[in-house]
Amino acid sequence: MFNIERWQEIFEAIAKNKLRTFLTGVSVASGIFILVILLGAGKGLQNGIERQFENDANGLISFWSGTTTKEYKGLNPGRRIQFRNSDFDASVQKFDDKLEIKSANFIFWNGVMAYGKETGNYRYIGVYPDYQAVENAKVVEGRFINDNDLIHSEKVTVIGQKVKLDLFKDKNPIGEQLVISGINFKVVGIFTDPAGEREESRVYLPFTTTQKAFGVGDKISNLDFTLKKKDTYEEALAQSNKFTKELSLLLKSKNMIAPEDDGAIGINNSIENAKQFYDLNLYIRLFFWWVGICTIIAGVVGVSNIMLIIVKERTKEIGIRKALGASPISIVGMILHESVFITTIAGFVGLLASLLLLELVGPQIKSDYFLNPEVDFSVALTTLVILVVAGAIAGFFPAYRAAKIKPIVALRDE
């Protein structure tokens, strides 16, 4: 029930001690402010990590060749391993029933490309059709590399948006001839990539054409795979770990590599990496919660101390109230009411200030691993509950002490 006299008492008490009330509110507001900012930062880290994994296919597992570090069957360490078409064919043949995406590529890290008077240096890669899914590339005009291009070793190319802007300007490049390292290729598509300009500075060619046109024989740079989906993350992780182990052993056997030589073949398992990143993000967010809660506790202790001082100052008043018949519960309600009011108002100010800061500053932060720091509705509700609970805790002990005051002792208080 609304009690206007109770509210009048609260505002009178605040008016008498403006500075003390203000400093108490600042301690609570700063606690909520720090908590929400830290939680927003944690969300920003999570968004950044998720964005990184959106750059490539979900569950991507990549293999590349390295240098042996162990002697094996009379062969000295230090041998440079080179993957070849037979490695990819054997991999697909053995694991085809488990694979969803399968692609090999050969990478030229830098090559001169020309259209008319415009030239530039870009990376060009021979790929399979599935490589579009590997890179999460989106074709905005034309098409991607297809099976017919591979079968007939067609001299066609799909270029990134940045290559298009650099060399073709405002002209539509579809059907035009692009000279790549002295060889003409017909542009059949333009793609964009969620990773931005770095990926869009690439040019894709049919894998078979690349091997024949540029004299690399049957060499392969990387093998890329994704596995068929599982119902849970744990099942997907177990499946990917088993696959990487078995395929690694197969590739080592074909290339005369010691089974225990982990340096000869590089492996990147994005599912395993995702677990590490998300675990790290979880620990960071838990730490942020801990720091924020500790800050709020410090504010609550400050409020509680202030309420103890208020109880001390109003000891005689409380004694008179009890002598006139005020119940202990009404005394407790009076103190709690004031405590919850101060804490809640201050907390809302801190909450609104933190949300405003995230809204204004968050979009201005540009980082690969930090994106759009924000606090969702459930977190806002959680902080609201924290405000009310903090106010109640801050006022409980002073209120309990006030309720235990004996009228005769209170009336003697100076």
TrEMBL record:
Subcellular location: Cell membrane
Every ABC3 transporter permease C-terminal domain range: 292-407
One CC-aspect GO term: plasma membrane
Principal location class: membrane
Membrane-spanning ranges: 21-42, 287-311, 331-357, 377-397
Domain MacB-like periplasmic core: 21-239
Sorted UniProt keywords: Cell membrane, Membrane, Transmembrane, Transmembrane helix
Membrane topology: Multi-pass membrane protein
Family: Belongs to the ABC-4 integral membrane protein family.
Name of protein: ABC transport system permease protein
Species this protein is from: Flavobacterium granuli
Lineage of producing organism: Bacteria, Pseudomonadati, Bacteroidota, Flavobacteriia, Flavobacteriales
